[in-house]
Amino acid sequence: MGSSRNNVIAALTAALLWAFAFIAPAAVKPASELLLVTGRYSLFGLCGLYVLCRGWSELKLMPIRRILFGLHIGFVGYFVFYICVSYSATMDSGFITAMIVGSSPITIAIAGNFAEKRLAWRELVAPVILILSGIILLSASDFIQGEPSDGSMIGVVLAILAMLTWSYFVVRNAQSQRTWATKPDPTIWAALVAMGAGGGSMLLLPFAIASTPDETFDPYPLFKIIMWCIFLGVIGSWWGTYIWVKAAKGIPVPLVGPLLATESIFGAILSLLVEQRIPTWTEIGGCLCILAGLGLYMVFDVKNSRSRDSGGSGRGSGASSTERPETSDVPVVT
Questions:
Q1: Rounded Cα–Cα distance for residues 228 and 130 (Å)
Q2: Where are the domains of the chain?
Q3: Which of the listed residues 176, 197, 276, 309 has the most CB atoms within 10 Å of its CB?
Q4: Could you give the CA distance from residue 144 to residue 283 in angstroms, rounded to a whole number?
């Protein structure tokens, strides 16, 4: 029991570290969002490069197509994903961004079901309706409050794109791992994904620096952006991944989905603290709809997981939270 409790605490710690990504874009102002993204993932990529250099003998044994695939999903699932998150959080609200991105387990389940046909579609209807209702409420919050703006709508669209990008990453990664006869070493695979994110970041870093306002390079703003990049790139991304992978091996499968969902809850709470406000009634309603949808989905997920464990012939789950790469030996972070 003590070991399981420690693993849960460790998983919550990792989720909290990842959640800081939602407040960082506003915290580093006047630095640009692009500078934060490229700085963060350049450091993350360097961590991956270090691991690949140490594991060069194992890397040479991997087929080129797998190496390229790892770099590809790292670029899309990390770099592109966090660009969407960063601009969304500054255009709209980190709270709204966190909640919309947090609904990704449903899009992951839908995409996984199309790929492998392993989930009863009727079990997804109610969660999808609840989550769509929540997103609509969050999207309409400014209109209901009488303060509509083009920026807030663009922010919502970017948050939805981030959710879809992350879902693509999770499903494609998990699907490829299950279909490969020889599984790659988890550490080497994580390093490849990190290099995919870091490669694009390093190429764009000079442009990000050139397009950043001059006041960013004053002592305090410069110190602030450097510290945030180190925190997100090394502590949040790399060390958070290590904590999660170690903890996930000792966590009961039904608990994994709810623990992953805490990242968005932490992100929403941190965003409200940074913005120094309480959510509007519309935002509360949207948040509750999304949480209800996720909760209902996880109930079905747990039921299907127990059905499989008991050896019954009941409905199987699709690319759900119990089968995503986060729960396996393949580290995945945000």
A1: 35
A2: 2-327
A3: 197
A4: 10
Helices 253-275 and 94-101 pack at an angle, to 10 degrees, of 170
Placement of tokens 């046909």 in the chain: 117
Cα 128 → chain centroid: 19
| CA atoms lying within 13 Å on the CB side of residue 315 | 16
- What are the pLDDT digits (tens) for 82-138? 999 999 988 877 888 888 898 888 888 888 777 666 667 888 888 889 988 988 888
Q: Quote the tokens at residue 47.
A: 């961590």
Tokens of 169: 């990453």
Residue with tokens 């190429």: 203
Does this model's pTM top 0.85? Answer: no
Single-letter amino acid code for the residue at 70: G
Query: And the tokens for 308?
Result: 């499989």
Residue with tokens 């960082």: 24
Helix axes 150-179, 94-101, angle to 10 degrees: 30
Alpha helices in the chain (DSSP H): 2-19, 24-27, 33-54, 56-59, 64-74, 81-91, 94-101, 104-116, 122-139, 141-144, 150-179, 186-210, 219-230, 240-248, 253-275, 281-309
Query: How far apart (Å, rounded) are the C-alpha atoms in residues 142 and 132?
Result: 17
* Residue length of the chain: 334
What is the mean pLDDT of the segment spanning 196-224?
A: 90
Condensed to tens digits (0 to 9), the pLDDT of residues 307-327 reads: 766 654 433 333 333 333 333
DSSP assignment of 43-89: HHHHHHHHHHHHTHHHHTTS-HHHHHHHHHHHIIIIIIHHHHHHHHH
CB 44 within 8 Å of CB 200? no
DSSP string, 82-140: HHHHHHHHHHS-HHHHHHHHTTHHHHHHHHHHHHH--S-THHHHHHHHHHHHHHHHHHT
